[in-house]
């Protein structure tokens, strides 16, 4: 409408055909604008859907990152545990080897061990008891000699003291 007024002001008068032509062009432009608006609206809807999908993927990515961090820590902890278990296994294997070596030695000793005959055992037992009896007898004899020695020392000390007393008495 503005275009028409400007043209009228300039001295140009539009005829009816031109006016109809402008109306048709205007309607076509309005139709195109509506189509573009529909396209824009469709693009906005698609953008909204895409943003929702994008946000969903971002959330999934965030959850996956958190889970990945957690799993990395879990893997690290399990690796540490595995290393400790391997060390303990190595120590246990060494201890087992030592125990097996000792066991072999003991089995060899056991296989080499000879049990004495009953009569031989009884004879050795009797000899042992006889030796123990002799030891007790000697111990008693030693005690008697020690007591006798103590008594003699005491007597000697008394005689010495008496002698000193006599000498002291004679000097005064």
Automatic annotation (TrEMBL):
GO terms for cellular component: axoneme; ciliary basal body. It is found in: Cell projection, Cilium. It comes from the Eukaryota. Keywords: Cell projection, Cilium biogenesis/degradation, Coiled coil. Pfam families: CCDC113_CCDC96_CC (PF13870). Residues 78-148 form a coiled coil. The keyword Coiled coil applies. Residues 4-150 form the CCDC113/CCDC96 coiled-coil domain. One of its GO terms (biological process) is cilium assembly. Belongs to the CFAP263 family. This is Cilia- and flagella-associated protein 263. It comes from Engystomops pustulosus. The lineage of its organism: Eukaryota, Metazoa, Chordata, Craniata, Vertebrata.
